[in-house]
Amino acid sequence: MPTEASGNSGTSPGGEPSRPIRSWVRSSPGTHLWLLVIAITSLVIALSPEGLDTYLLHRNSSNLHQLAHHPLRALLGSAFWIEDPAGLLLYAVLFEVLHAPVERWLGTAKWLFTVATAHIAATLISQQVVLVAIRLHDVPRSMAHVVDIGVSYGLAASAGILTYRLARPWRWLYLAAVLAFFLVPFAADRTYTDLGHLISLAIGLACYPLTRGKPFDRERGPAAH
Predict the structure, then answer these.
(1) At what angle do helices 52-59 and 29-47 cross, to 10 degrees?
(2) Which of 89, 78, 86 is nearest to 46 (CA)?
(3) SS3 (DSSP) at 41
(4) Please, where are the H alpha helices in 148-207?
(5) How many Å is the Cα radius of gyration of the chain?
């Protein structure tokens, strides 16, 4: 009996302290499954012969052409590819810093609702802006076929809702930094992607009702998060 008790001393009902990485992954399954798919598609792009990689990226883009002909595939597929496989490590870090804490805090369903809503809304609105710009001859018609993929809209949404996970005054400092991060590029370049990021951030902030009943844990503090 003493041996059995000592063997279980490193675990608790709330997690697996003796296996922190495993516990972290199991507590945010959606984040890590998504990241795994992106790693696979990035490997496919990296190993594809010249021409095939371009074809795959265009086929899974959520640009105007793909949205008009294959809307579901465009909206879903564009969330699982990144244009440059070399950026996979950076995205992995961002997923762990933004998506994983939000999923652990809110639960997979609420986290997925937030990022999916932001991804879809930001894509459709920003592409509608591109369509209007084309009709007004402000941008070339080739903009309807540009590669428009990536996971940045979902990340922006998680960055937004993560604001409510922080205690004051850190919450306001964090929010100011996030707003500056997305507003400065938009003010400088005014691209449809920058617009999409702002829309996603706004949706993340607007999802505050999903955080009710999930207050900041004052005993653990921001360091634990």
Answers:
(1) 140
(2) 86
(3) helix
(4) 152-161, 170-189, 192-206
(5) 20
User: For residue 149, what pLDDT is reported?
Assistant: 87
Tokens at 82, concatenated: 């990144």
Residue 105 gets the label, from left (phi > 0), alpha (psi -120 to 50) or beta, of: alpha
Distance (Å, rounded) from C-alpha 166 to C-alpha 161?
A: 10
In the beta sheet, which residues pair with residue 81?
none
CA nearest neighbour of 88 among 57, 45, 147: 45
Residue 214's SS3 state is coil
Contacts with 171 (C-beta within 8 Å, 6 or more apart), sequence order: 163, 164
Three-state SS at 224: helix
Q: What is the largest CA-CA distance in the chain?
A: 79
Q: Which residues pair with 15 in a beta bridge?
A: 12
State yes or no: pLDDT of 10 exceeds 70: no
Phi, psi of 15 (to 5 degrees): 175, -165
Residue owning tokens 């105007």: 64
Instruction: Please state, in angstroms and rounded to a whole number, the distance separating the CA atoms of residues 143 and 153.
Output: 19
Provide the residue type at 98 as one letter: L
Per-residue pLDDT at 2 exceeds 60: no
- What are 151-192's pLDDT values in tens digits? 999 999 999 999 999 988 899 999 999 999 999 999 998 899
89-118 burial code (b ≥16 CB/10 A, e <16): eebeebbbebbbbbbbbbeeebbbebbbbb
